[in-house]
Amino acid sequence: MSWSRDVGAVALADFRERSRTSKLIVIPVVLAYFAKLVTVDSTLVVGNTYTGVPTAAWYGGLVAGIGTTVLLLFGYPLIHGSIAHDRTTNVAEFVASAPLSNSSYLVGKWLSNFTLLAVVTGLLFGATVVSFLLQGTGPFNPVDMGAPFILLTLPTMAVVSAAGVCFETLDTLRGTGGTVLYFLLAIVGVIGSIPPESPVDLTGLVALRQSMASSIAAQYPGFEGSIISFAYTDTATDMEMFRWAGLSVGSALLSRVPIFVITGGLLGVSVLSFDRFDDTQTWSLGLFDHGSSDAEATAELLSPPLTELSRSGSDGDISLASVTTRRFHLRRVFIAELKMALRGHRRLWYAGMIVALVSAAVAPLKSLRSIVIPIALLLPLPVWSQLGAREQIHRTQELIFATSNPLRLLAVSYLVGISVGTAVISPALVRYVLIGSSTGLLGAVTAVLFLPAAALAAGIWSGRPTLFEIGYLVAWYLGPMNGLGLFDYVGATQPPGSIDIQIGYLVAAVVALIIASIGRQRQLA
């Protein structure tokens, strides 16, 4: 009873802390639009030929199928950072000295993560109900509609919640490196749900396809008995209609057993690796992680040397310079911001920057836009993701904003982001200029202008780097790497001579900067 009480207390306190932020207000709006996009503006095509009668069960499967995949990717930014928040708010000292076991603390954090994602799932279910009442057919059956969310989405959210806890207890995975690894594992999970007999159905699509295949076979004797293709489209015509009865509870739960095992395994690793906030014996190795925290880098940049303090202290009281905001030294601030952006990374990160520069200088021209530049622009990810969020993470807003104009600092941060991005692909830019390739040059410059702007907007409004990290990785995977034009921020798939994508992303960069400025003004209010 004491252990469960401790778990509940940690979960309740953590969830209350998260629920107080006004940033969560935007989630219902996004989910309502997502439900409309899936149910009203799209059609689920099963096996290239069939689609379901829009009953309550069909609406539940329709939204839960794609919603689970989306939350698998974007649920991580919502829950990541809970343990880090305890570190930065000095709660860690109380936890370390409290009569609270590691398992009760970590399971409580997991339960808080899961509760938050369960609320998001409930809001998505509510948006689905509204869409069905407006567009659906037949009686409203909340059990049939809610079954896919309960049996498929919630177990996946348990895995996401456990991953959030596990990655924060491993020093190697606390930062950007952990986000990159999570994204790669999530993509593997999505791809693993494509084969009809996949043993680990992380997205629930295998269970949905098998259930729908049984319904189609019962209503269409000529059906072959298996479903390979499963797609959402807005151009479906002449589809065969079938009535889906909904998920079978027994088979759905059986397909979730590996998910429960993965959840337990992640929590077990968390308990074994948790250092109880003792950072004196940690080690890490990662391409994207910082060797020292941004707070330490900031302190080293801004504080006077220890010897100076010692000399001052020997003569009596320490005199401090008066605070003033009358003059803004752009060059000095830019250099300080650039130092904070570039220092403290792993040696492997600097080696990666050198490899990117060499590749941009010697790679064939045809591969620059499609391979070299997109991969090289992944290296500034740990720098860009801190833009706008660093002050909130380390709680230095009042200190920094009191001594400098916040909007000017915002502009300097953006210039630093542009500078780092430009530097890593500078040989490619020079080559484009020399051969007169305006399209290639515009695509690369557009990416360098847009990505830091998006990072600033995401960092200021979310207060965390994870949102931009996941969003950027998704866009990178779908756009330059897989040719989805909407996300192709470098224009790798754009026809020769066309600049539509570049214009769109340049406009998006301006919009992102406006959103970031509004967010910064809101922070000052």
From TrEMBL:
Is Chloroplast one of the keywords? no
Alphabetical keyword list: Membrane, Transmembrane, Transmembrane helix
Annotated TM spans:
24-46, 58-79, 114-134, 146-167, 179-196, 253-274, 348-365, 371-389, 409-434, 440-463, 470-490, 502-519
Could you tell me what this protein is called?
A: Uncharacterized protein
| Record bears the keyword Membrane | yes
Provide the taxonomic classification: Archaea, Methanobacteriati, Methanobacteriota, Stenosarchaea group, Halobacteria
Q: Can you name the source organism? A: Halorubrum distributum JCM 13916
